[in-house]
Amino acid sequence: MTLLLLLLTAQDVDAVTGARIITGTGEEIENGTILIREGRIEAVGAGLEIPSNARVLDATGLVVVPGWIEPHATRGIDRANERVPSVPFVSVYDSINPVAPVFEDSRRQGTTTMFVSPGDGGMIAGKGVIVRPVGLTVEEMTVVRDALMKLSLQTGGGQSKMSHLAAMRKEFDDVKDYLEAEKAKKPLPSPAKRAELDAKKQPIADLMAGTLPGIVSCPEPSDVVRAHELATQYGIKATYVVGPEAWRALDYIKKHSLTVVLDATLVYWDTDPDTREQVRRVVPKAFHDAGVPFALQTGNGTGNSEMWFQVATCVKYGVPRDVAIRAATLHGARAIGQEARLGSIEKGKDANLQILTGDPLDVMTWVSKVVIEGRLVYDREQDAKLKRLLGESE
Amino acid sequence: MIALLLALQDVTYYRVDRLIPIAGEEIADAWIAVERGKIKAFGGADTFAPEEGAVVMRAAVCMPGIVDAGTPSNAVPNGNEESSEVTPAVRALRMFDPSAPDVQRLRKQGVTTYFIAPGSRNVVGGLGSAIKLDGRTAEAMALREDVTLAAAMGRDPSAGNWAPRGWGSPNMYARRPTTRMGVVYEFRRAFLLANEAREAPSKTDDPGTAVLIRALERKLPVRVVARRATDIETAIRLAREFSLSIQIEGAQEAGEFVETIKTQKIPVIFHPHVRIDRIGGPEGTEPRLDTFARLADGTVPVALVGQGVEEGEGPLSMAAFLARYGADRGALLKALTLWPAQILGVADRVGTIEAGRDADLLFLSGDPLQATTRIEMVMINGQAIEGKLTK
Prior knowledge:
The structure holds two protein chains of two kinds.
Chain A: H1 2-8, E1 15-22, E2 28-37, E3 40-46, E4 56-58, E5 63-66, E6 68-73, H2 101-108, E7 111-116, E8 124-131, H3 138-141, E9 142-152, H4 161-185, H5 201-209, E10 214-218, H6 221-234, E11 238-242, H7 250-255, E12 259-261, E13 267-271, E14 278-282, H8 283-289, H9 307-316, H10 321-327, H11 330-335, E15 353-356, E16 367-372, E17 375-379, H12 384-389
Parallel strand pairs in A: 1-4, 1-5, 6-7, 9-10, 10-11, 11-12
Antiparallel strand pairs in A: 1-2, 2-3, 5-15, 7-8, 8-9, 13-14, 15-16, 16-17
Chain B: H1 2-10, E1 11-19, E2 27-35, E3 38-44, E4 55-64, E5 66-68, H2 101-108, E6 111-116, E7 124-132, H3 138-141, E8 142-152, H4 180-199, H5 207-216, E9 222-226, H6 229-242, E10 246-250, H7 258-263, E11 268-270, H8 291-295, E12 302-304, H9 315-324, H10 329-336, H11 338-343, E13 361-364, E14 375-380, E15 383-387
Parallel strand pairs in B: 1-4, 5-6, 8-9, 9-10, 10-11, 11-12
Antiparallel strand pairs in B: 1-2, 2-3, 4-13, 6-7, 7-8, 13-14, 14-15
């Protein structure tokens, strides 16, 4: 707790000045100023008055964008999943490795928030943690502990979806039956008494009460339907992490206004079975054309491991620029339940900013500085690893 | 009159915001004329004078089609004839399947000339050929056959093999080199025997020997896959021993041999590492991101190769990342076109926009080295193969 307070009071940037500000709401401000107080954005605009004792980050000639948000990061932990499929009581809080390279790399790329999640290889896979990718301890990094429960419809080990889903339903039914039995016996337990529910039942009870949101991996298009039906049946407030073919379920997704995170593979090849013609499927464009909002994530391939590239790919294939930027910021925040606090440069939100040498979609642009909650956490001038890689340190 | 009309039909004009000829300066507000599969002429707007009634199409940017001189393992099938570790006479073109999905995928990435070669599993793998990615048969698509002899140093020909044990007869995994020194032994043995055969030719010499002799006579370059610094050093040393003309493929750690490569004029087929966050390549080569920039100052041709057919893996994406890491724009564009054409010996046909060259062209929505640029149309031999433009 003490360490956390130190972080909060370690704000060292009070104002960012002179920049082109892409607020992430569709508005861009030329020669703008951002005022920061207690780690939050106090004001955004052009021609703002700056307090005389303000520590100013001069961003003249630079571009400020909300820090990217990674809504589904399964790295930075020792192993993606437990071998046991249903482990609602585990949390990545216990397995995050603060010195894993992914956190430093995320800062370098302008990411300021990550939802670190158990992998897709479980069923009820445990709780994920929203972190800022900076800090020497998990506590320092943690923004929201046990923020969402990871669920997955990915089958493995020779299992079919029939038994996978039956097993999931059984987990929920067991707890539902238990709660109903308890309710029948006596009045519903008060919050204080909820601690009496065992560790395995409590998270599932919270899922079904809607107090713990879920984030569900749906590798196939039909998984989206199944997952939504499951969520509806058990009262789960869910975000859907979909596979590349999810565009085939767009009608359903749109009808039910599902909150969606796209797979890291945004573009893939399909073979027409009749003509053998290679067809390029562009997932974000399909979603945009259908009027369905989406969030982006990065992956483990060449190119798609960097969020700016994911945004550029969307724009390449016709997604409007501000929609693509929102997909990497505000929609990611929404996917993890943090849109009130994160994802755009607006008064009241956390001062999480990336300061760029140019337009975010230009390949020649680099992240110059990153600010998280008003604290400078990355400076390209001090990035020894990058300098070495680029041969700049000779 | 009819002949004149027919002649008019043969010429198509393209008006572009920017023309990148490679062989000269980029031209803003330009035009290019294509006639019967060849580039007829091009120039700035002030010289634009199309015949009356001529077809004029529009595009943002035009550049030569990409010449991809690489052999990435997950693209068009790269075979390894594993019946022996030294197979100089096999021709990869014979097993090329024009209907393979990757042919279209490469084309849609803007690749118009490609290189089909054996893989790097053999110490000496066989003969590679340059092809155009338009046609129904390997024969129709071949641009130049027997361009180079494939060879490999390092892990590819040795890892995964093990020494024969016990009484069983050696099988194809249990007799091949298991170490780098074994690889060098096989290479030297093959060329030493070929040298002997050269001095005392015999009717029973196998076709492979004839190929090796051509390499010894410097009539056939040897293209050596070498990624790590030690392997690059070994390749250069072996080339000196046998007076071979070599090209180095892979070259991820060539940063240590930049001077030698330039002095000895060794062409490089560069497989770039572009991820900042991890060690790259099949041999975990050192992830320096500035190696291309240091190699590609124009002294030797350096071909930049795509790393796959998925989004973000193609040659243009590789060039965009390397531009980000500080490589010169002109060098990158040459590394996609002219230099690989020179390395493949087909620069008289493709790789630049010049009158008389094949009309293998890309029409793009913007700057080729930006991640937001789309390929609008791919033309091979004057035919629009992928996509289309509007008038």
